[in-house]
Amino acid sequence: MLNYWWVTRPKRRLNSIPEVLSTFAELSLDQEWSGQRGSHLSFEEALEKAGLKKIGERRDHTGGGARTYRAWVASLGLIFTQESTGKTKLTLAGEAIMNGDSPVAVLTEQILKYQFPSAFSLSRGVQVSSRFKIRPFRFLIRLLADNRINYLTEEEIAKIVAVEAEKETDACFEYIVKRIIEFRSLGDDCLEKDFAEKYASSKGGVNFVNPFAHLLDLANTIMNWMEYTQLVRRNEDGKLMILPDKQTEVQQILAHRVPFIDRPEEQEFFQRKYGIDPKHKKDTRDLTGAVNITPRIIAEQKIKNAFIAESLKTPIAKISTEVIDRISEMTELSSKIVEETLQKLYPHGAIGSFMTEYFEMAFKGREEASDFEKATVALFHDVFGFETKHVGPIGLTPDVLLISDIAGYQAIIDNKAYSQYSISNDHRNRMIHNYIGNLKSYSASDVPLAFFSYIAGGFGKNITPQIQSITEETGVPGSAISVSNIIAMVEKNLITPYSHVSLRAIFSKKRMLERKDI
Fold first, then answer.
1. What total of structural domains would you count in the chain?
2. How confident is the model at residue 43 (pLDDT cuts 50, 70, 90)?
3. Which of 367-371, 378-382, 511-515 has the lowest mean pLDDT?
4. Are strands 478-482 and 511-512 parallel, antiparallel or unpaired?
5. Which end of the chain, N or C, is more open, meaning fewer C-beta atoms within 10 Å of its C-beta?
């Protein structure tokens, strides 16, 4: 029995969950799983072929790796086993991801609802101690929102929170706050004398070389899951903190009381209740009918699988000829059936799937600067309808040029893949003299320059006066917008499209933009 929190981790990050789920669905949906060694091996081979799992020797040829990946998606409430048939079904949350809904939105809800006890935590081979009755990620968010704590480190989660936080009561919360403050003062000296034995790994007792290794691995995975929600981020010192522009959203999450899911020992009941996606309040589906697996259904599942994999790597705002050709090549199916399937299942594309990758790009410094720029070009073209040019590679130019013939203006965007970007004197001069002052060197358009804007993971405290200084000198209004708010604009645009006139007004506010502005 595990005497600490637990999340399974065939991979430490959740970015590949949609692909793993769709690969599993292609091979095993509506099929029996238990005891079907052939299915397990087929799934494992498919994961390896897709690059989702390292190719292993699989000495025992039992499909153990496949079972681990299946447990991963089950632990997040995306699938369940139908008790009457033994067949695997998607929960509503699993269906939502397969239907092209934003995986971040769906999985954020699943992460925040993740609880002990659960069908997963009680399952054979896991068995988290019954002393835990807690939603671990919600508890961690609550700690981060407390001004006595403000941040959490990997060590604090590993050595204090994941082993001592048992319940969500105020008494338990206050105890954990006290223990974290104590740990920050005393370090390991505040731990119990028998800590290593009491919280030893279930896989082999105490590791005397590093008795905390398994707990630190667990804490790292927990932090990765939390970062996937785009509510929090680790800073340069490795401290996990709520993103400045997500403070209000976090407070709203914590203010909304969500009851524990009961009957965790009843797998189907629990999973269907846990796996309710953001668009539904209950699962009323009748899944008892037999499913006739036709060649067309098999083809559609292959197309779904390929489309989801592609949508995670590149922004797809509509089903274009290019997308159809790409999926047709990947699946070796005719363009006709690919087009019919995509137009039926994803008529508006699946732009939300790419937003996970776009968010990550905004924090990677120069590592993926060019990819961040190209993605911004694609978003402003495909989502917001601008004529766009990636002018960054020219040199002494901004990253992206926007042109709106409809509204009669052009604009420039500069991407900065940093968590706290401030405009240095060099960057200020570059914007004034090269980007704005020398516009005609990289733009053939005669329409006026309406605005300049910076997109970054986050900004320093002085960003607004820095923007205003450039505006005062050039007469061109500017702005700065976080990647979180760009993503919010993309999501809003899917429901009510912005006009280019309204976008000009938003990006011309001469300050850092807030959620209320968009």
1. 4
2. confident
3. 367-371
4. parallel
5. N
Question: What is the dihedral angle through the alpha carbons of 116, 117, 119, 125, rounded to the nearest 10 degrees?
Answer: 80
Strand partners, 154: none
Mean pLDDT across 319-332: 96
> What CATH number does residue 193 fall under?
1.10.10
Determine the Cα–Cα distance for residues 508 and 305; give it in Å rounded to an integer.
Answer: 41
What sign for the dihedral angle of Cα 21, 26, 28, 31? Answer: positive
Comparing C-alpha atoms, which of 160, 126, 130, 156 is closest to residue 9? 126
Same domain? For 339 and 428 the reply is: no
Same domain, 121 and 11: yes
Q: How far apart are CA 494 and CA 486, in angstroms?
A: 13
Tokens standing for 285? 């589906």
pTM: 0.91
- Give the dihedral of Cα atoms 64, 290, 102, 249; nearest 10 deg: -90
Q: What pLDDT shows up at residue 42?
A: 76
Amino acid at 405: D
Contact 483, 455 (CB under 8 A): yes
Element (H, E) at 164: helix 162-164
Q: How far apart are CA 87 and CA 151, in angstroms?
A: 43
357 domain residue, yes or no: no
- CA pair distance 108, 474, nearest whole angstrom: 42
Confidence of residue 48 (pLDDT cuts 50, 70, 90): confident
Strands 400-404 and 387-390: antiparallel
Cross-strand partners of 205: 201
Q: What is the largest CA-CA distance in the chain?
A: 74
Strands of the 478-482 sheet, one edge to the other: 387-390, 400-404, 409-415, 449-456, 478-482, 511-512
Same domain, 375 and 510: yes
- Burial class from Cβ neighbours inside 10 Å (0-12, 13-18, 19+) for residue 292 reads exposed
User: Mean pLDDT for the chain?
Assistant: 92
Select from 486, 374, 418 the least CA-distant residue to 233.
418
Angle, helices 37-49 vs 17-28, to 10°: value is: 140
Judgement on whether residues 176 and 267 belong to the same structural domain of the protein: no
| Residue 188 belongs to domain spanning | 135-257
Helices (H), 115-156: 136-145, 154-156
Cβ-Cβ contacts under 8 Å for 477 (sequence gap 6 or more): 450, 451, 471, 507, 508, 509, 510
Looking at the structure, tell me whether residues 243 and 303 fall in a common domain: no
pLDDT of residue 306: 94
Domain-located, residue 360? no
CA-to-CA distance for 89 and 18, rounded, in angstroms? 15
Task: Output the six-digit token pair for 436.
Answer: 């704005």
* Domain assignment of residue 359, yes or no: no
**Claim to verify: residue 39 and residue 174 sit in the same structural domain:** no
Q: Quickly list DSSP for 195-230.
A: HHHHT-BTTTB--SS-TTHHHHHHHHHHHHHHHHTT
